[in-house]
């Protein structure tokens, strides 16, 4: 990254002690985000009705953010300068489609609405998902090119992926409505692996990481994407710092620098997803199917962790 870009980002960084509100603070990604922001010296407040928010949070409110009044109360109580919205029904088909879509879209709207109208909020990051791309569709899916980046066409095929695309449009609507008074961005984190999952705890899909490596059919439908939760949390920190230097409403992929696979994707993907074959030659060695080049170019962020270094040998 150029010295000019580095200086721009550094000059807009949140100073230590900034009050930051994290929704979904007890979740797989939320726990690492709370920890990373607190370690950076910020005053972090969690909002989550479930237990598990790290003790590094200054306070936790078990609010139901699908209620607009509760969303406004959370903003008014904690008076944050920045908001990281992670709360959601976190996996496809874990609830009914109608419930998943209603909850996820209402959460995104309410958090953005409350942030926009409660004085003091300057930066908002909203969690989306790589599933907006459309992989795994039951009637077939083929990429336009590989690796996948933020310019690739989206094609959600279930309520979860549609709700995540709606969250992106929601934050962009608020950016258009309110201008640069509040800076917005969305992240599409790949399959998030919490630290304990490297040591055998079940992942969000119910399988263990070792199983996903040993059985390519488990990870193949999602193109073997993943990211360590701590790397994703560091991405959130970099994004919050860099928001004023970005075009309002940007969207970013964030993934590991390699694929969650024992074989190169150029060989593995055509066997499990034949429609990817025409584009797989672009994936060299251990390269992943999702590109984080935009995050590196605009934010200077690079993932540090790989399954090759993090996975316990006892798993």
From TrEMBL:
Domain of life: Bacteria
TM regions (residue ranges): none
Record-annotated NAD-dependent epimerase/dehydratase domain positions: 20-252
UniProt name for this protein: NAD(P)-dependent oxidoreductase
Organism of origin: Actinomadura miaoliensis
